[in-house]
Design a protein that fits this description.
The complex is a heterodimer of chains A (about 240) and B (about 650).
Chain A (H helix, E strand, L loop, with lengths): L3 E9 L8 H14 L16 E3 L8 E11 L1 H12 L14 H15 L4 E9 L10 E10 L4 H13 L4 E6 L2 E6 H4 E6 L6 E8 L8 H7 L13 E9 L1
Parallel strand pairs in A: 3-10
Antiparallel strand pairs in A: 1-3, 1-4, 2-3, 5-9, 5-10, 6-7, 8-9
Helix pairs in contact in A: 1-3, 2-3
Chain B lengths: L10 H5 L28 E7 L3 H5 L2 H11 L4 E7 L3 H10 L17 E5 L6 H10 L15 E5 L15 E3 L3 H15 L6 H9 L4 E2 L4 E5 L5 E6 L2 E2 L2 H10 L3 H7 L7 E2 L5 E2 L27 E4 L1 E2 L10 H4 L4 E2 L2 H15 L3 E5 L9 H11 L4 E3 L7 H9 L7 E6 L3 H6 L6 H13 L4 E8 L6 H20 L5 E8 L16 H14 L5 E5 L2 H11 L5 H10 L13 H11 L3 H5 L14 E2 L4 H13 L16 H5 L7
Helix pairs in contact in B: 3-6, 5-19, 6-7, 11-12, 13-15, 16-17, 19-20
Classes of the chains: A alpha+beta (about 240), B alpha/beta (about 650).
The complex binds iron/sulfur cluster.
Iron/sulfur cluster binds next to α23 of chain B.
Chain lengths: ~240, ~650
């Protein structure tokens, strides 16, 4: 029987925004264990759950639309359902003729109960277990950004300048190397909410072959257009992913 | 009553600035099973303060127990606060924000009681930093009616004179019951409108509470302690009568309210450590705090017994937690299963000071493996013998390696410290380990021990090399890590009178050992000499050191226990400027007749026993573990009216 891949949609809420992606992943894995999901394990010395994550968020950024894929062990599903549904299914060949609703509802309930506050389950979908990466289907992210340091007007004009450029090059310091990226190329749109206070804007940023940029980098670059904002004091939420 | 009800820091304020600090999740809480109560709905607001970073505090079982015990009371809300890392301290100072609790982000100063857990002397400056950042006067004598009551417990409380000026009351011994007694006393006082001094007197009447300001210390010309005397306190008439009326024990009534001193309270001459009689009956944490950010260990903990009577003569934990009190295998297994299921962790650590000593260890492990299939069990603090190796093997720990602590390299030295393991047993253990697939062995030793010669130091390297060779002869390619710490004579141990060796000499011995540990398959780790030195100064210090502690804190000493964070120049300068001689504390042999700064705090261990043990050490005699059934007369059981409780 084919393994079953379940896509979990969840939120990284406001109160857990300061967790790193690794910590979010750790908490999700623990919740899967706590919920007793029949997760397939990798082979080898120290088996790990077959789970994958996409478009990881940095420390400080919350996300409304996050995804994790979980590969379930088909043999375990029947046991899981039997344990959860307590006989709601007819015995014998329950393992082979499981209906989707029968699987997803108890899975969702168990996971919801096991998640820590701040990480919330938003949906479960069965997806084909293909190797083609979900990551490559992510076309863009929509971010909401808030800052108390400047007014919406000042922000609007700096953003307009940014958008007017053909290129906005920025140096990214990574351990051991410096890379130059063109931020402008990644920014699809910026909409400042008029008269908002704190100043709020929406920024749509492209993903290209799994590569993208952070709104914080864009804000950092606005210094060139006369707007100095400490990116550490900016509140960034990713509110949507655009899929192909 | 704390009146400075400063507002809580709002989440919105905080989240706008936490992006500037390292590991911001240290300050945002949200742990599974964290308890959030409405501060207005309780009588006593208790801040459990851990003077080290969040991750370290979260992995401390004792704090988890107290958190759960205190919060199980509907009239108490216990919140946590940890030492902010330097960047967070700067942020708080820059914003003018007080240090706040994790749960409701309340300023430290708005709590009724702030209770520090003092696990290690090198966290003292962090405790001062937390008070200061929390908006609480550092010294007890500067605190007013609106300031919280500052208490402290943990192993350091048994000899915490250097902290005496900063802490209103110390809680000595097991905290489960004592913490509640303190809360009850506070509650009885709160709202009566009585003075803070009344509160301190009431606390001094609670068994095992030590109120340092009620004791006066005199010093001799040579700098040693001349006398520690309880200071009689004049109470106003109403207080005198009402406090006295609360006392049921006629002996305490007579000694603390002597007839020839009407109106006066006289604190007890000695304060005795609290012990819970039974661990089996002690409260258990059913809902442990599970942090969202990566903890030091990803696992749940179950205490299998408290106390250890192996009798290693350097070991403070081996004296101040006596006697041994075990839980039954049934209870441990039940708890382990419950925690594993509720937490999502797949590992349980069986906590004790010497796991292999547990009376039913094999039964327990077999039971756990049957009851909790698929989960890992870890046994910290194993002995150096093949039985322990067998246990580690049973647990399938071969891939993580094996940690053994012979503590000394030569038999002569092991006899001196009463580490009752022979060369033969060590080699039995390592042969068994290599035969069972363990290739990585970590060995713990101490240098600078009393009576140590260069041969004893070289014996460590020799032992490590021979262990490695044993592995090679068996066809294994072993890696041996030798981890060495400097010996610090600790209060309440038979070595409490011994000098700590000079830093230069300790360095020389480290080098000597290093020379012997060159070569493939061997690696050598050692502790920073400065840490050993500072610990030796603070561990056996008296109250005068409070001057140095405060000044060191003011000059920026923080996280002294962390390698690379101890700024030894600050301390050297502070000792010079305060005229306190660190050598007097660290390197001086104490006279047998000398009054030690912690003598008025009674761990239950008799001084005669400690002296006898010291003499036996000099002769190279070992002393048995009373677990075997023969009491060796340490004094704890009769003095504290408890019994060893094996299951
Ligand atoms: S009094 Fe005796 S039995 Fe009790 S802890 Fe001491 S040595 Fe052991």
């Amino acid at each position: 029987m084919l393994p079953m891949r379940v896509r979990v949609r969840y939120t990284k809420g406001d109160t857990v925004r300061f967790l790193s992606h690794l910590d979010i992943a750790r908490n999700l894995r623990m919740a899967l264990a706590g919920a007793k999901w029949p997760v397939a394990m990798t082979q080898g010395y120290s088996p790990k759950m077959k789970v994958s994550f996409y478009a990881p968020l940095p420390v400080g950024t919350a996300g409304d639309e996050e995804y994790m894929d979980v590969v379930l062990d088909t043999k375990g599903i029947a046991d899981f359902i039997r344990a959860k549904a307590q006989g709601a299914l007819s015995g014998g060949n329950a393992g082979r003729h499981v209906r989707l609703a029968h699987v997803l509802t108890p899975l969702a309930q168990a996971l919801s109960a096991a998640l820590p506050k701040g990480i919330a389950l938003k949906g479960l979908y069965i997806v084909p277990d293909s190797k083609s990466s979900f990551e490559s289907q992510i076309r863009a992210s929509l971010y909401r950004v808030e800052t108390e340091e400047v007014t919406a007007e000042a922000l609007s004009s700096a953003m307009a300048e940014f958008l007017a450029q053909a290129q906005v090059l920025s140096e990214l310091r990574r351990p051991g190397q410096t890379k130059t990226v063109d931020l402008r190329k990644f920014v699809e749109s910026i909409d400042v909410v008029p008269n908002s206070c704190p100043a709020t804007f929406f920024m749509k940023i492209r993903h290209e072959n799994g590569r993208t940029v952070r709104p914080q980098w864009v804000i950092d670059s606005l210094a060139r257009f006369g707007m100095d904002v400490d990116t550490a004091e900016v509140i960034v939420d990713r509110i949507k992913l655009y899929l192909e | 009553m704390p009146g400075r009800r400063q507002d809580a820091i709002t989440w919105n304020q905080l989240r706008r600035h936490l992006g500037k600090v390292e590991k911001p999740a240290r300050y945002t809480g949200g742990e599974i099973n964290a308890v959030h109560k409405d501060p207005q709905s309780v009588d006593v607001l208790f801040a459990l303060a851990f003077p080290d970073v969040y991750e370290v505090g979260m992995s401390h079982l004792g704090s988890q127990i107290l958190y759960s015990v205190l919060n199980s009371r509907p009239d108490v809300s216990c919140e946590r606060v940890y030492a902010p890392w330097r960047d967070m301290e700067s942020l708080l100072r820059e914003k003018g924000w007080p240090l706040f609790s994790i749960e409701n982000r309340l300023p430290l100063s708005s709590f009724d009681i702030v209770g520090f857990s003092l696990q290690y002397e090198l966290t003292y400056t962090n405790a001062l930093m937390m008070l200061d950042l929390g908006g609480i006067p550092l010294r007890s004598k500067h605190r007013g009616p609106e300031d919280p009551l500052i208490i402290a417990g943990g192993p350091c409380a048994m000899a915490a004179e250097p902290m005496a000026d900063f802490i209103d009351a110390f809680a000595l011994g097991d905290g489960e019951e004592l913490a509640l007694d303190i809360v009850d006393t506070y509650k009885a006082w709160k709202g009566t409108g009585k003075s803070r001094l009344d509160l301190l007197v009431m606390l001094a009447l609670v068994e095992s509470v030590y109120v340092p300001s009620l004791y006066d210390v005199e010093y001799r010309a040579d700098g040693t302690v001349g006398k520690v005397s309880p200071v009689p306190v004049k109470l106003d008439e109403g207080s005198y009568e009402s406090i006295k009326a609360q006392i049921e024990d006629p002996d305490i009534r007579r000694s603390c309210f002597p007839e020839d001193m009407p109106g006066y309270f006289v604190p007890p001459a000695r304060v005795r450590r609290r012990v819970i009689r039974s661990l089996e009956a002690a409260p258990f944490i059913h809902e442990p705090l599970i942090p969202l950010m990566e903890p030091i260990h990803d696992r749940v903990m179950v205490e299998i017994f408290r106390g250890c009577t192996q009798g290693c003569r350097f070991c403070q934990a081996g004296t101040i937690y006596r006697p041994v009190r075990e839980r039954t295998p049934e209870t441990i297994s039940k708890y382990a299963k419950e925690l594993l299921e509720s937490s999502g962790y797949d590992e349980v650590s069986l906590v004790s000071l010497s796991s292999a000593d547990y009376s039913h260890i094999e039964t327990l492990l077999a039971r756990l493996m049957a009851d909790c299939p698929g989960s890992k069990v870890s046994l910290p603090s194993l002995r150096v013998d093949s039985f322990s190796v067998e246990l580690a093997k049973m647990l399938g720990a071969s891939w993580t390696g094996l940690t053994l602590a012979p503590e000394a390299g030569s038999q002569r030295m092991r006899n001196i410290i009463n580490k009752k393991v022979t060369e033969e047993e060590i080699f039995d253990a390592v042969r068994h380990a290599f035969g069972s697939g363990f290739a990585h062995i970590k060995l713990y030793f101490m240098i600078g021990l009393p009576g140590e010669t260069d041969e004893d130091v070289e014996a460590i390297a020799d032992l490590a090399r021979r262990i490695r060779q044993t592995g090679r002869d068996m066809g294994v390619r072993p890696t041996i890590v030798v981890s060495v710490s400097g010996f610090v004579p600790k209060p309440n141990t038979p070595f409490q009178w011994e000098p700590c060796i000079q830093r230069e000499e300790l360095r020389r011995r480290q080098r000597l050992l290093g020379d012997g540990l060159r070569g493939p398959g061997l690696s050598y780790k050692y502790h920073d000499v400065e840490h050993t030195w500072l610990e030796a100064v603070l561990a056996r210090g008296d109250r005068r050191l409070s001057e140095a502690l405060e000044l060191a804190f003011r000059r920026g000493a923080r996280f002294d226990a962390w390698s690379n964070h101890l700024d030894i120049d600050i301390w050297e300068q502070v000792f010079q400027d305060t005229g306190l001689d660190p050598a007097f504390y660290a390197h001086r042999e104490r006279g047998k007749e000398e009054i030690l700064p912690w003598d008025h705090l009674d761990s239950g261990i008799s001084k005669e026993f400690l002296l006898r043990e010291r003499e036996r050490a000099e002769k190279g005699y070992t002393t048995d573990d009373c677990r075997s059934g023969v009491c060796v007369g340490c004094g704890v059981c009769p003095k504290l009216r408890v019994e060893m409780s094996l299951k």
